[in-house]
Every structure is written in structure tokens, then in C-alpha cells.
Amino acid sequence: MSFDSKVTTAKSGKSDAILDWLQMCSGVALIIFVFMHMSLVSSVIINTNIMDTIAHTYEKNYMAQIGGPILFLLFLFHFYLAARKIPFRFEGQKTIWAHAKMMHHRDTWLWIVQVISAMLILVMGSIHMWAVLSDLPITAARSAARVQSGPWLYFYLVLAPLVVLHVVAGLYRIAVKWGFIRDYQRSKLNRFATGLAVVFICIGLATLVRFMTLTA
Ligand code: HEM
């Protein structure tokens, strides 16, 4: 290998590591956002006034008007970084599928789940943000009216579990890939991640039931 090609390889290795690190940081920010978002929206289960007060404070501080578009950019940035490793060509997809079947490895399947859910979340998350942010102010009554109209209930019944699966799988993969946990702790982490997913899927479903039963 020539000196020039060694330098080029070292440089591309370094920039790949930086992009990987940025992907992890943007992923962690989105994981925190999703858990906070689902918890705050679920306040409607306790009392509609709590959700209205949170939404009002959020908008009064321009967190929806400015924070919303910033979040959307972060969302796109994270997808752009992750897309470096997604095989968009059919040949690549066939190879990954064959490897996953051959290796019988749970973490390889988890990666496939993450890639497929990412595509759907990109489209559905964008539609959701557009629908909410173009119809401010946010109130429990308006959200309930939306969830009770058209296909929105089915839309959220798909989006909520999908988002939870994606972020929990992301959390697990970050912990393993960046060495936050050791090999022997993997099964413990797996149990924790499964529990977390079950809790947040239940919170999401309970929120939707509350929106469906709320009368104006
Ligand atoms: C600033 C951006 C966002 C705002 C202001 C916002 C606001 C809301 C509001 C008001 C609801 C109640 C239902 C409705 O009104 O239609 C809701 C529900 C929901 N949002 Fe968002 N959202 C944002 C971003 C996101 C993102 C990025 C995701 C994930 C990709 C997401 C996932 C969900 C889910 C799954 C529900 C259903 C509620 C549940 O079952 O817990 N949201 N959001």
C-alpha cells in the first residue's frame, strides 16, 4: 500500500468515526425527546388541564414554533447519518437478509428491525409533525378531535409502537456498540430494554384510548 493511500484510508477512518459519534449523539437526543414527548402527552390521561398547561408553556416559549423545526432538522440529520449504512440496492438487501438468516444472531435481526422502522418513522414522523405544527395551538381537545377523525387513530396505532421499538433498539445498540456494557451484561440489558418497550407501548396505547374517549 502506498503512503498516499495509507493517509487517505486513515483520514476516511477518522471521518467515519466522527460521523458514527454524531449519529450516536443525535440518536441519544432523539431517544430523550421521544420518552419525554410520550410522557408529557400521556399527562392527558390524568387530566386534560395538565396537557393544556404543558402545551401552553411550550408554545409561549416558542418551543413548538422554533423547537419543532429544529427537531425536524435533527430528525433528518440522524436519518442522513444512519443512511450511510443502509443498503438501498436490492443486491445489498439480499446479502444482509442472507447473513441474518445464516448467523441466527438476535442483534443482526435487531438492526434489520431498526432499518425498516426508520424508513416508516421518517415518513410518518414528518406527517405527524406537519399536522400538529400547522394546527397550533396544541390542546387536549384539538388532539382528541384529530385522533377521533379520519385515519389518525390507525396512524398512531402504527407509529407509537414503531417509535418505541426503534428508540429502545437504538438504546440497546448504543450501549453494546460503544462499550457502555460488557458482554456478560447483555442479557440483563436485553431484559431492561424489553421492559422499557412494554411500559412505553402501554403508555402510548393508554394515551390513545384517552383521546378516543375524550368528548369536546
Ligand atoms: C415538535 C414536534 C412535535 C410536537 C409538537 C408533537 C406533538 C404531539 C401531540 C400534540 C400529540 C397528541 C396527538 C395529536 O395532537 O395528534 C402527539 C402524539 C404523538 N406523537 Fe408527537 N409531536 C412532535 C414530534 C414527534 C416525533 C418526532 C415523534 C416520533 C417520531 C412523535 C410521536 C408521537 C406519537 C407516537 C404520538 C401518539 C401519542 C401516543 O400514543 O403516545 N411526535 N404529538
Automatic annotation (TrEMBL):
GO terms for molecular function: metal ion binding. The chain crosses the membrane at residues 21-46, 66-83, 109-133, 153-172, 192-213. Pfam families: Sdh_cyt (PF01127). InterPro entries: Fum_red_B_TM, SQR/QFR_C/D, SuccDH_FuR_B_TM-su. Its main location: membrane. GO terms for biological process: tricarboxylic acid cycle. One of its GO terms (cellular component) is membrane. The keyword Acetylation does not apply. The keyword Methyltransferase does not apply. It is found in: Membrane. Heme b binds at H37, H78, H128, H166. Keywords: Heme, Iron, Membrane, Metal-binding, Transmembrane, Transmembrane helix. This is Succinate dehydrogenase subunit C.
